[in-house]
TrEMBL record:
It holds the Pfam family Esterase. It comes from Leucobacter insecticola. SUPFAM superfamilies: alpha/beta-Hydrolases. This is Acyl-CoA:diacylglycerol acyltransferase. The keyword Membrane applies. The chain crosses the membrane at residues 6-28, 35-57, 69-90, 97-115. It is an enzyme of class 2 (transferase).
C-alpha cells in the first residue's frame, strides 16, 4: 500500500467518486421548495467562505504562494459541499443525516487529495509517514566511498570488503546522519544519492550537488516529491552512469521552523550547511574536490538558501540551482524577519539578501546558475526574474527556465530537474555529451 499513488490513480479517484455519490444521495429524496432554497444558500455561503479563505491560504501564514485555479476550485467546492451537508445534518431525516455525516469526511479527503495533486508534496501513501524508501548503504559501498573521500582516503583501508550487488543502471538513495560538530544545529537525518558510476567494485569520484527542501518540509520531500532517484538516474543513463552525488541535508531543524540559512538564535543553519555538511561529505563520500565540482540548489525556501549561500561562498560552490526562491530570507513580515533572524539589525538583514551578496562578491568568473519557476506562479516567478538578472549582471552564466502549466509546487521542481539541469552537469563535466 505504501506505493499507492495519492496524486492520481485509483485511490483519489475512488474517494472523489464516493464523496460525490454520498453528497448526491444526501441531497435527493423528498425535498421542498424551502429545502432547496436553504440548501442552495448554504452551498453558496460555503463557496463564498472558501473563496474568502483563498487569500489567507496564499498569504505568509499559509502556503505563501498564489494558488492556481484548480487548487482554488477545490477549496471552494469542498466548502460548498460541506455547507450543503450541514443543512442535511440539521434539517434532514434520519437517512439524510447519516449520508451527510459520512459524506463530510469523504469531501474533506477529496479536497486534500485535490490540493495535494496540485502541490505534489506527497506522491504516495508511504510518503505521508515522512520516511521515503531509502536503501541501507551496503557496508562495501560505504567503505569504498570512504576510500575515495578526499579527507579519509589516506587513512582508510583500501579493502572494500565484499562486493555489493546493485543494479548497474540504478542509483542508490540512503539515509544518513550528518553531525553538527561545529554549528550544533539540530538537523534531522539527511539523504544521499549515489549514481551508478559511484557504485560497484570500481567507483568513480563524482561532483556533488547539495539540495534543499522548501519550508515547511524536510529532506524527505526532495527524495519523494522531487523524485530524486528517478530524475538523477535519467541523467546518469546519458553518461554511462555518471551524475553528481546528491546530498540532501536538513536546513530547517523542524518542518515549521525557518532559520533562513543564517546563524542566529534560531540555529546556526549557515555554519551547518557550509562547514559541517561539506566536512562530512569530504570525509565519507567519493567526491571531487574544489568549488568547480560543487553546487547547491533548492526549492522555495531552499532555493533562497541556495542563492544566498552559493553567492556568498564562491570558494565552496560554483553551481547554483534556484527553483522558485525568494528575493530575501523571510519569516513572515519584514519586521518579524529582522527581529528573529538578525537580532533586530537592519544592517545584518540587508547584508544577507541575495541581491546584496551578488553585488558584493561580483564578478563571478566561473559560476553557473539555473533559475526556474512555474508558468502559473505569479508570485515567485517575477522574483526569480529579478534574482536571475542580478546574477547575470554579477557575471554568472545564467539559465532562466519556466516550467509549463505548473505553479509553486513539486511538479515545477521535477520539471526543472528533468529538463534544465544540463548547464550544471556540463559545468561539472558529467551528463549528456561528456
Amino acid at each position: 500500500m505504501n506505493d499507492v499513488s495519492i496524486v492520481d490513480g485509483w485511490l483519489p479517484i475512488s474517494v472523489c467518486a464516493v464523496a460525490g455519490m454520498l453528497v448526491v444521495l444526501a441531497l435527493i429524496g423528498k425535498i421542498s421548495r424551502r429545502w432547496i432554497i436553504v440548501t442552495a444558500a448554504a452551498a453558496l455561503a460555503g463557496a463564498g467562505l472558501g473563496l474568502a479563505l483563498v487569500p489567507v491560504a496564499e498569504g505568509p501564514n499559509g502556503f505563501d504562494t498564489v494558488l492556481d485555479p484548480i487548487a482554488s476550485a477545490w477549496i471552494c467546492a469542498a466548502f460548498a459541499a460541506i455547507g450543503a451537508m450541514i443543512v442535511a445534518l440539521f434539517r434532514g431525516g434520519a437517512k439524510r443525516r447519516v449520508l451527510a455525516g459520512i459524506a463530510i469526511p469523504f469531501v474533506l479527503f477529496s479536497a486534500a487529495f485535490g490540493m495535494n495533486a496540485q502541490f505534489g508534496q506527497y506522491p504516495t501513501i508511504g510518503s505521508l509517514s515522512a520516511a521515503p524508501v531509502a536503501e541501507r548503504m551496503p557496508a562495501s559501498v560505504a567503505a569504498m566511498q570512504r576510500n575515495l573521500a578526499p579527507k579519509a582516503s589516506a587513512t582508510t583501508s583500501s579493502d572494500p570488503g565484499e562486493e555489493t550487488v546493485h543494479p548497474a543502471n540504478r542509483g542508490l538513495v540512503s539515509k544518513v546522519t550528518i553531525p553538527a560538530s561545529e554549528s550544533q544545529f539540530p538537523a534531522r537525518d539527511a539523504y544521499v544519492y549515489l549514481p551508478p558510476a559511484a557504485l560497484g567494485p570500481h567507483p568513480e569520484r563524482m561532483p556533488v550537488l547539495i539540495m534543499l527542501s522548501g519550508q515547511p518540509g524536510g529532506p524527505e520531500n526532495v527524495v519523494q516529491a522531487g523524485a530524486l532517484r528517478e530524475v538523477m538516474d535519467g541523467w546518469a543513463e546519458q553518461d554511462h552512469g555518471r551524475a553528481p552525488i546528491v546530498v540532501v541535508p536538513d536546513q530547517l531543524g523542524d518542518p515549521e521552523s525557518n532559520p533562513m540559512c543564517v546563524d542566529s538564535k534560531l540555529g546556526n543553519s549557515a555554519t551547518y550547511l557550509t562547514v559541517d555538511v561539506p566536512n562530512w561529505i569530504e570525509a565519507n563520500l567519493g567526491v571531487r574536490t574544489g568549488p568547480e565540482n560543487w553546487g547547491i540548489g533548492g526549492f522555495s525556501q531552499g532555493g533562497t538558501c541556495a542563492i544566498q549561500l552559493g553567492s556568498a561562498h564562491p570558494e565552496i560552490f560554483s553551481a547554483i540551482l534556484d527553483v522558485s526562491g525568494q528575493l530575501e530570507p523571510s519569516s513572515g513580515s519584514r519586521a518579524n524577519t529582522v527581529k528573529l533572524g538578525f537580532g533586530g539589525s537592519e544592517e545584518s538583514y540587508s547584508a544577507a539578501l541575495p541581491l546584496t551578496l551578488l553585488e558584493k562578491n561580483a564578478p563571478y568568473k566561473n559560476t553557473v546558475a539555473v533559475f526556474g519557476s512555474g508558468s502559473l506562479d505569479d508570485r515567485y516567478g517575477p522574483r526569480i526574474d529579478t534574482v536571475a538578472e542580478a546574477a547575470r549582471q554579477a557575471g554568472m552564466q545564467v539559465t532562466r527556465v519556466v516550467s509549463p502549466d505548473t505553479a509553486h509546487n513539486w511538479q515545477t521542481v521535477q520539471w526543472v530537474m528533468r529538463h534544465s539541469l544540463e548547464p550544471i552537469l556540463n559545468h561539472f563535466g558529467v551528463g549528456p555529451g561528456q
